[in-house]
Amino acid sequence: MVNTQSKLLFEKAKNYFPGGVNSPVRAFRSVGGSPLFIEKGKGSHIWDADGNEFIDYCCSWGPLILGHANDKIINAVDITMRKGTSFGAPTKLENQLAELILSFNKYIQKIRFVSSGTEAVMSAIRLARGYTKRDKILKFEGCYHGHVDSLLVKAGSGLVTFGNSSSAGVPNSFVNETIVVPLNNKEAVIQAFNKFKNEIACIIIEPLPANNGLLIQGKEFLEFLREICSTNKTLLIFDEVISGFRYSFCGVAGMYNIQPDIITYGKIIGGGFPVGAYGSSKEIMSFISPEGDVYQAGTLSGNPVAMSAGIAQLTECLKPNFYLDLETKTKYLVDGINKINSFNLFKIFSLGSIFWIAFTKHETVKAAEEIDANSMSYFKILYHALLENGVYLGPSGYEVGFMSEAHSYEDIDNTIIAFEKSLKKLV
């Protein structure tokens, strides 16, 4: 595969950006080599600066559930942009997207639009603290919630611990308000509440952890979290930045019929444009300014371009059997790869339209500590072999893949063939 232009662009980018990129995983550090500079995308395919064509299962890390440059989204955005791109004032498009979401999602009653998933989580944490008048939060090792200071914390040596910062620049005072426990471990959660009784404002969890592998949690564990939060007057936050509108219109909350207190969403609600949101009951949301004293604001919150793209995309997601069709395609891909995975080199875990390739012998992987870091060396080989055969995944073995409506069965068949060729190199 020729990637001369991508290499030249990357060398030039190093003069402008730290590491040559504007987000760390793009630098290909996890898989080695130079990152591909993408020139364009249409449907399920992308093309890089050297003209190489790939079937794309990254989908901008999930939001492009209709595929690249979907005609309905492009047309909606074009109409809106000709009227203006930003006003910093209310528009009816905000009302329309909010009504669309709230009418078909019974788990939230009011919503607030922001500009990213990270901002949604940051605002949700502040709201939980303002509502409960408590400071400490509890998170799980292996769940990622954006680059919020208090959430860039990894587990320490104990079962229940304040942990350590996973980034320089995060003060210890922030770390000391964040309790980190293992995923899928009821005992650790119980110990945390015993140790910090009446101090924990919220538990935050990806109900479908998909930023550090696909760590599918059972309904029982999530119901346990709901119960212990209710008992201790602690709020339960579902971070559905990835899973929201991906598994179903109501996300994992809808899949398990569990009512969290606050839910966060990401760019999928804006057709891939920079947007996020958090929602809750009318009572809890009344604590947000200007009604309440929990402050949160943003010039681009409810940006009309993002709102119009979101209306176009989520309207399509409401079509009959939309999510069933995505799941069927994903199962077709997984089953096809499993048939040619004769050496049983890896497992593929999937839920809905999300899948993950894991070099493991475990039949299930539910916690971060169950992932073998050494297995990533195998993923590197597979990753570059797949690129050579025209398949693009997120450049890290910890990242998941996504199916879109634009993927055809011909795309999937070609992907299975690409895997078969790539596995020969891996063997």
3D architecture notes:
It is a single chain. The chain is α/β, with parallel strands linked by helices and 427 residues long. It has 2 domains: 4-69 and 320-426, Alpha-Beta Complex (Aspartate Aminotransferase, domain 1), CATH 3.90.1150; 71-317, Type I PLP-dependent aspartate aminotransferase-like (Major domain) (Aspartate Aminotransferase, domain 2), CATH 3.40.640.10. Helix content is 35%, strand content 15%. Strand 1 (38-42) and strand 2 (45-48) form a beta hairpin. Helix 2 (71-81) packs antiparallel against helix 10, helix 11 (322-340) runs parallel beside helix 13 and helix 12 packs across helix 13.
Task: Give a quick precis of the structure.
The chain is α/β, with parallel strands linked by helices and 427 residues long. Helix content is 35%, strand content 15%.
SSE blueprint and pairings:
Elements: H1 4-13, E1 38-42, E2 45-48, E3 53-56, H2 71-81, H3 92-104, E4 110-114, H4 117-132, E5 136-140, E6 153-154, E7 164-165, H5 172-175, E8 178-181, H6 186-195, E9 200-205, H7 219-231, E10 235-239, H8 251-256, E11 262-265, E12 276-280, H9 282-285, H10 304-317, H11 322-340, E13 347-351, E14 354-358, H12 376-388, E15 391-392, E16 401-402, H13 409-426
Parallel strand pairs: 3-15, 5-8, 5-9, 9-10, 10-11
Antiparallel strand pairs: 1-2, 2-3, 4-12, 6-7, 11-12, 13-14, 14-16
Number of discrete domains: 2
CATH superfamily of the largest domain: Type I PLP-dependent aspartate aminotransferase-like (Major domain)
For the biggest β-sheet, the strand order reads 4-12-11-10-9-5-8
Task: Give the amount of beta strand, in percent.
Answer: 15-25%
N to C succession of SSEs: HEEEHHEHEEEHEHEHEHEEHHHEEHEEH
**Global outline:** globular
- Give the termini distance in whole angstroms: 21 Å
The stretches of 5 or more residues where confidence is low (pLDDT under 50) are none
Let me know the average pLDDT: 95
